[in-house]
Amino acid sequence: MLNIALFGPPGAGKGTQSEFIIKEYNLCYISTGDLLRKEIAEGTRLGQEAESIIAAGQLVSDEIIVQLIEKTIVTNPYSHGFLFDGFPRTYMQAYILEGLMIQHNSSLNCLINLDVDQDLTVRRLLERGKSSGRSDDNETVIKKRLQEYNEKTHPVLEFYREKGILRNVDGNKSIDDVTGQIKDILKEEMKHSLYNVVLF
Ligand code: AP5
């Protein structure tokens, strides 16, 4: 199994890069942002709870995220592995992910951090906002999303650095260049996991 998490500030390119990874490695894609927007569109209780929080650019509670993730993992017992986009975003979520991986007799291979200058991510999101229809792609909310990222999410990198599975990518480059950097990382990961299989 190959389990990967894509990490980075709003507009870093997590969704963009996820597209090629899931195609190439046939992974089960779990984007907590997409899952939340689906709950909102369907008008579920969970969606109603999350809607105003997302519109304000804040992180929704860890409890809501756990419910979403568990529901998705249970309905997608996927043998090739998982690609997490935008999860984990807090220390609590990092611990929850560890527990879930253990339940699946597995572990996270690597957390890929898309390192991007924040003035560039603001420009990308304002541009995307013209056509995305996302209520959180406007200047005021983008500022709040970045503040949440800097205060609550960015510190989680330390957890993965200590575990030795943090991989940094220069996300300021073109989409193709970033894809190339991620491909190199995943090639290495695949080599390691094959090696582990042989050892077993
Ligand atoms: P979520 O949907 O996860 O949004 P986000 O993290 O703010 O990330 P984005 O989707 O905005 O950006 P991205 O990194 O995917 O960039 P993209 O590829 O689209 O979360 C939304 C909200 O849900 C959160 O604010 C929070 O409230 C809640 N939430 C979600 N998960 C949560 C969790 N785990 N815990 C608590 N709350 C949670 O690219 C952006 C644009 O840039 C695109 O137009 C793209 O074409 C362009 N682009 C991408 N890469 C490049 C490049 N290299 N060069 C030029 N342009 C590029």
From TrEMBL:
Chemical reaction(s) catalysed: AMP + ATP = 2 ADP
Enzyme class name: transferase
Binding positions for ATP per the UniProt entry: G11, A12, G13, K14, G15, T16, R128, K173
Keywords: ATP-binding, Cytoplasm, Kinase, Nucleotide biosynthesis, Nucleotide-binding, Transferase
Compartment(s): Cytoplasm
BP-aspect Gene Ontology terms: AMP salvage
Record's GO cellular component terms: cytoplasm
Positions contributing to AMP binding: T32, R37, Q58, L59, V60, G86, F87, P88, R89, Q93, R134, R145
Biological pathway: Purine metabolism; AMP biosynthesis via salvage pathway; AMP from ADP: step 1/1
Entry EC number(s): 2.7.4.3
GO terms, molecular function: AMP kinase activity; ATP binding
Subunit field text: Monomer.
Domain commentary: Consists of three domains, a large central CORE domain and two small peripheral domains, NMPbind and LID, which undergo movements during catalysis. The LID domain closes over the site of phosphoryl transfer upon ATP binding. Assembling and dissambling the active center during each catalytic cycle provides an effective means to prevent ATP hydrolysis.
Similarity field: Belongs to the adenylate kinase family.
Protein name (record): Adenylate kinase
Organism: Spirochaeta isovalerica
Classification lineage: Bacteria, Pseudomonadati, Spirochaetota, Spirochaetia, Spirochaetales
Stretch of the intact protein here: 1 to 200 of 388
